[in-house]
Amino acid sequence: MVDLKKEAPVWDLSPLYEGFEDPQIEQDFQAVESLCHAIKAQAGKFASLSTAEFEKLMETYQQLSLLQGRLAGYSSLRLSENMADKEASDFQKEAVKRNGQVSEQLAFFTNEIVAMPQDVLADHLKKSSFLKRLSRYFEDLAENAQFMLSDAEEAALIKQYTDVEHPLQQRYQQVLATATGDIDGTSYSLTELAAKMQSPDEDVRKKAYFASLEVYETHKDEMAEIHSKLAELKHQKDVKRGYKTADESRNRSNGLSDKALAALVSAYDDMAPELSHRYFKMRADVMGVKTLEPWNVSAPLSDDPASNKASWAEAQTNVIQAWEKFSSEQAQWVKAFFAENRVHARKTEGKRGGAFAHPISTEEKPYLFLNFEGLQSDAKTLAHEMGHGIHFTSYARKQEELVAHPPLAVMEIPSFFGEMIYLDHVKDTVKDPKQLRNRLMDAVSQRLNAVGGQLNFHKMELGIHNHVRDHGSITAADILKISEQGNKEYFGEALEDSPKDNHRWMRIHHLIKAPFYVYAYAVDACLSMTLYDQYKKACAQGDKKGFMNKWQNFLDTGDTKSLTQMMGAFGLDLEDPKVWKQGLTLLSEMIDDVEKLNSKLETKVSSKKFKKKGNPLIP
Description:
Blueprint: H1 23-40, H2 51-81, H3 86-105, H4 108-114, H5 118-127, H6 129-133, H7 135-143, H8 151-178, E1 180-183, E2 186-189, H9 190-196, H10 202-241, H11 248-254, H12 258-271, H13 276-287, H14 312-326, H15 328-339, E3 343-344, E4 356-358, E5 367-369, H16 376-396, H17 408-429, H18 433-471, H19 476-491, H20 510-513, H21 519-540, H22 544-557, H23 563-568, H24 577-600
Parallel strand pairs: 3-5
Antiparallel strand pairs: 1-2, 4-5
């Protein structure tokens, strides 16, 4: 077993399966097929089933979903360890294929539920407590009935995902996970190059930046082609289902109205000068330069390289201590992730980039994944993913599988809330004023990226999909043109003009795996600040328990209520522009706090360290 006090851990997936040769895998596949046959035997009979029979049908369908989630989750986690692992890749292909074949056979299932007489379904819910707990599942089907296709068409789309879309997504991830850039004769992965972009040595950052660009330049055409094909397929599906815009299906699944999303976008655009523009100008001032070159945007601000470092033991301890101050019960859940080896943080060959949390199912414990490079920012990432883990742990205790997993625009609220819990711990424990200033500036930068940066990506994503809808395809050059404007809107005049830098869109996996996911970050980063402000005010007023009861109810809710209903419990109306401006104002106040610290400090770091050198990208 890995000594978690000495080295970043790898996870233990044996509670799922012992390995690819575990006979339980084939037994589970066969169980899924058996459950599928049992459900198919009831085809055409749903409306005439007794309550007991319909309850049994739904229990069977849920058990099938649990097993499919376990198989799919294991295949995904194993492949993320090493995207170049052929055995893991082949297993995931097999899992997607076999689960897809079952889903094709059950394409009739939701259509037949929707076709049931409403009085019959209502009577079943009155008589069965199990079915009553699934109320939200039936409501969602009814609300989206107008977008459902025939059984044959639904089956064809499932097969299309299995045979065409998933292989394209997998290819995209494998290319980026295995691609390397060269620095002085040594090859580095994109994840390693991203870590070097936070080196205290500007020469190292600059070399890492250009090495990354070489990777993106090498693969941009293939990556753009995959974007183009997936966007084209999505457009075809949207036309068939009757969705009018590229993001309508995601908005509906998120339970977020077009009006609410537009209110957030408008609020940020209005406040951008006092948010990202002001912050990046201040960051340039702190660095002693007029404008930021791309390799200096995330540069550490401290002259002491050690202050930007964090051991695994330090990161783990700080996350635990942060949650102990917030909730003793949740702190125990945090500790369990480490004690039970449910975190993969160690650098390994071929490992997928980025970070995520995976819930598996309500019958399995969740896992966390990140690339730990020994930086302070990695500790923040751990806190973010732990927020997800706490959420998954919470609702899994309370909800049935079919109504457990909330939409994307709910999922990111607890993760960003976790960052706020961690930031408060940083404020309490970092005593050196300059270090605190630097840590707060990094926190502001990350939160700005979560709101303004992700809205920027959302606009770019809309631009990509709309271009494909208008022209039939898109190239890397087209994407570059679309993304150029976004950088100007986000950074203002603080960033050196580096058009090629915009090819970093290739690292945003969500654009490929989950179209229109990215704006959920902006929605939830904004809402989490408002909710955390409520928490702080409740504590100041001696009513921490009152807030914690509402927060725990939110975590327990799963997918049994809409985002609008959940936020209504906190007095927030998502269609009211004031709600979004409230969150953004809190972000502006974070920048105010940094400016106050700056006024008490020598604002310049080493001028030699950030000496203006001109941008070789500009002819």
